[in-house]
Amino acid sequence: MEPILQLSLVFVGKDGVWVFFHEAKDFVVLIPRRYMKKRELRERMLELREGMLHSEVAAMSKTIHTYLQSLPSFRNAKNIFLYASTRNEVETDDIIVNLLQAGKGVAIPVVNKGTKEIVFSFIESLDELMPSTYGIREPLPNSLRPVALDSVDLIIIPGVAFDMRGYRLGYGGGYYDRFLEKLPEGVHKMGLAFDFQVLEALPVEEHDLKVDTIITEERIIKVE
Question: Which uninterrupted H or E stretch holds 19?
């Protein structure tokens, strides 16, 4: 059964995270400030995102793609590290196809659960991807083409939430944090998210790294 109310807006207030829905006259959900620790915030933000209708995800993703294509940092990049979307993330299949058709290098992450690290592998087609670690689509083992870090121009990163300072709340494994630490200086880091996923300030730790740009269906946020 589809949800009766469709998610519209989230913002951080003095009491916690207020969640608005279409066709609702009042506040529907309050995530109290006591839940602002990463684990609890992650769980609740995932619940909200996974409750979105597929039609909403598709429409908002299309708008985000349009904003993305307007940016010189995207248009001028030759080799792009990019995630394969899952679980109502901003959809990336069309981005991947368009980049491949334009002759760009597209690399998709491969998770190593043993070392808790990710490496990126070039792909030539979406057909090379299949569900693997954590149910995330990855290049097939016989299609791996590891990419040297010094060849990347742009990395596009998924997230459970972002904040206005550029900090990212991930899925809790620390894979991207460890990977981003290894990137050469100057590689542009970009996050894709639905606007309700962008909060004023996330709880952060010393090892957390920022993205340079966040794109939602409502705006392009260039982090200072």
Answer: strand 16-21
| Per-residue pLDDT tens digits for 180-222 | 999 999 999 999 999 999 999 998 888 888 999 999 999 999 9
Q: What is the pLDDT of residues 135-149, one digit of tens each?
A: 899 999 888 999 999
Question: Per-residue pLDDT tens for 94-133?
Answer: 999 999 999 999 999 999 988 889 999 999 999 999 999 8
Q: Where are the domains of the chain?
A: 7-54, 61-222
Max Cα-Cα span within the chain = 54
Contacts of range 170-179, beta carbons closer than 8 Å, 24 or more positions apart: 171/42, 171/134, 172/38, 172/39, 172/42, 173/116, 174/116, 174/207, 175/109, 175/111, 175/116, 175/117, 175/118, 176/118, 177/207, 177/208, 177/209, 178/116, 178/117, 178/118, 179/109, 179/117, 179/118
pLDDT at 207: 82
20: three-class secondary structure by DSSP: strand
Question: What class does CATH assign to 61-222?
Answer: alpha beta
The order of strands in the sheet holding 168-169 is 168-169, 161-163, 198-199
Looking at the DSSP bridge assignments, the partners of residue 10 are 19
- Give the SS3 label for residue 23: coil
